[in-house]
Specification:
95 residues, rod-shaped, single chain, 3 helices
Length: 95
Amino acid sequence: MEHDPALVVAEKHVKAVRDFFYHLMVFVVVCAVLVIVDLRVTTDQAVLGLDWAYWVILFWGLGLAGHAISVFFDNYRVTKEYEELKANQPRTPVA
């Protein structure tokens, strides 16, 4: 049985969105724990009460933003390529 290419693209996108939200959930939980630990062990010379956790949050947040861009804004390119591919295929009559 042949799979419809649009269905395959849709399934990949759904998996990518699910993986992104899993990544976001782990980010929030881990960063919350890091902030709590940092606030407990920090010195008085910390920035915003944090000594080191903001570096982890900053760089992991940049990675998470890249993940979000690849999931939510890259789909337009995939859809456009699929439409061009389908437009170039010869049409066969349905019996």
